[in-house]
Structure formats: structure tokens, C-alpha cells
Amino acid sequence: MDYRKTNAPSNTVTRDMIRLSTDTGNVYETVAIIGKRANQISVEMKQDLEKKLQEFASYNDNLEEVFENREQIEISRYYEKLPKATLIAATEYEEGKIYYKNPAKEKNNL
Length: 110
Prior knowledge:
The chain is mainly α and 110 residues long.
């Protein structure tokens, strides 16, 4: 999923974890699923930001020459305004867009 086109809120939202955990039957398992997805999204966002900022990197040895790069500042501000990875992951979980499986539970069902 493209995190730039998500409808996740950019502010903190209180969620009813009991209602969210009806699929798994376990609040802690639900939190673990959302947490792992948030880590995946966070890594993807960081790699994307680093790739875009590499275009503006200067490899000068002169530390006295410090200048503002407007494009770099705008890119950084854009990524700061995006919803946090945990909010995106929680929204994806609520919408049923996250696929997960528990191998321990599947082993017991066999």
C-alpha cells in the first residue's frame, strides 16, 4: 500500500482495542500485528526519504560552507506532515488490508 495515499489521521486517535481484537481473539496479538506492520511502513518511509535526500547530498570537505537547500527542506517538511507509521498500520488493520497468520495456531488446527 502506498503510505502517501492513505486516509489515516495525522493526529493520535483513541481506539477500542477489545473491538479491534475480535479477529484474533487476543489483544496482545493484535498489537503485535499492528506493530510489525508499523515497522515495515516506517522502514519503507525512511528508505524513500533517504533516496530523495541523496539527490541533494554534497560531498564537500569544507564544513564552513553551510547553505540551505530549499528543495531538501520542502521534502523533509512533507515527510514530517505525513501520518505516523503506527496510525497508518492501525488504519490498515481496521480496514482489513493487513494479511497475517499465526503458525502456532495453524499447527494446533492440523
